[in-house]
Amino acid sequence: MEKIFVFDTTLRDGEQIPGACLNPREKLEIALQLARLQVDAIEAGFPISSPGDFKAVKTIAERVKGPTIVALARAVRKDIETVWDAIKKAERPRIHVFLGTSDIHIQKKFGLDREKALERGLEALKFAKSLCPDVEYSTEDASRTDPDYLVQVVEQVISAGATVVNIPDTVGYAVPEEFGRLIAYLKTRVSNIDKIVLSVHCHNDLGLATANTLVAVENGARQVECTINGLGERAGNASLEEIVMAIKTRKDYFRYCTTVNTPEIMRTSKLVSRLMGIPVQANKAIVGSNAFSHSSGIHQDGILKDRSTYEAIRPEEVGITEHSVVLTARSGRHALKHKISEMGYELQEQEFEILYNQFLSVADKKKRVYDDDVAVIVQDVIFAHLDQSGLYSLASYKITAGNGDTSEARVRLQREEEEVILEASAQGDGPIDAIFKAIDKIVGAYHKLEEFQVKAVTETKEAMGVATVMVSRGSSRALGRGSSTDILKASARAYVQAINRIYRLLQRDSDVSPDKNTVPQPQ
Length: 523
Ligand code: KIV
Ligand code: ZN
What we know:
The protein has 523 residues and is an alpha/beta fold. It folds into three domains: 2-276, Aldolase class I (TIM Barrel, Alpha-Beta Barrel); 333-384; 389-511, Alpha-isopropylmalate synthase LeuA, regulatory domain (Double Stranded RNA Binding Domain). It is built from 17 helices and 16 strands. The chain has helices at residues 24-37, 51-63, 77-87, 103-109, 114-131, 147-159, 176-189, 209-218, 240-249, 251-254, 265-276, 297-305, 333-342, 349-365, 371-382, 431-443, 487-510, and strands at 2-3, 5-8, 41-45, 68-74, 93-100, 135-140, 164-169, 197-202, 223-226, 256-257, 392-400, 407-415, 421-428, 448-456, 465-473, 476-484. An eight-stranded parallel β-barrel has the order 2-3-4-5-6-7-8-9, surrounded by eight helices. Strands 11-12-13 form a three-stranded antiparallel sheet. Helix 6 (147-159) links the parallel strand 6 and strand 7. Bound molecules: 3-methyl-2-oxobutanoic acid (KIV) and zinc ion. Zinc ion (ZN) is lined by residues 13, 168, 170, 201, 203, 233, 237, 522-523. Residues 13, 168, 170, 201, 203, 233, 237, 522-523 line the site of zinc ion.
């Protein structure tokens, strides 16, 4: 069976979701997991966008072995140089250059004509090729491009040295039959098309991203660009787990294969969801919590007789296992170490000690500590607090509240790397409102609470609560997550994390290089 290359862009397109802002350590952890999932390429970021993203891409390039490490550049010399600086130490580096090809992009974004835009793209491509043998060229907004101009662009970028040419449906406008025809047209009309890997990159604005990707494969595409949980700009990108499992489950129909290690899918999905703070919808195909549960009596009866009656995919194939080992306060270091490596985390010794202490304090309050509890501790206690220099963490809080009374909170925050504790009190309409107001007082800025949710991690009475908040300040929005067996503490932690992220986003925007705004951000 012919192989389809899987290019994961969770850390680039996926990370462009409003409010998502991973720190370099969180990005590395996801990249290591993507390597265990055995994707063929990891798009690690857009290094010109911020020093933090540059650092994350560089660390991934140096540490992650196996997949090709890709980073994105506009057709601008400075972007390409920055990408190369970030990825040159990778085992297999690839520079990804993109430039719009539709008249809408060429005229409205760049104020150019087709010929001049092509010249700019070719110049950028040749420069990238002088640095790196593997160069991918994306014809942004390809699905709204005149097909004959697209043929011309693709043919010329191949002659100039592109190794992969990507055809994006940037605004999620294509419909399957039409997109399939476009790919087939390129396959027959571009004279040198066999010299490269033809790729597609579909967005999900009409809910057609997976369908468009699969139909493109049937018509000759051999690389699929996708993200875990379908995360990405607006309605997201084509979902990796859907594409890979469709190709695997329906191999009788597609007759292709991927080399993705599918039992790692569930773990990857959970890791990405936790670190990004974006919950997976319960009925999401393949990775939703309901995807393999059967509630109707008829279905349950069928499943008990033979699973194949109502299951087209076996849960084990995507890494859903029935029983998971449960830890308790009596579990030692060895058991916890075994558990975290089974869950796919790689911690340094000193990080493990922090985790172990926190684990013991949670285990003291709960009878049993589940995998999801451990994962939440790893994220909140270790990853979320790395790379936060100059930012805040919750030291303590005290609350006075009662039935019908105004609540009053006294909150103490610590600025990372400083000994000083900052303190404030505030009254509010309920304890959470009072806590958030006290935090605002300490940081000296008002934040608008856009969304707020508290959920139990596991289904027991002593469950850890995970709070998720979306907070905005002016035009900046950020997500925050916090966990604890005490939901007020979880909410305070989430609010503080969102504020830290807003600071990082504001810092990132002020770091923008002067030429950054000459071309808008990619989709
Ligand atoms: O959607 C898009 O066109 C992109 C390109 C940068 C590949 O993300
Ligand atoms: Zn995109």
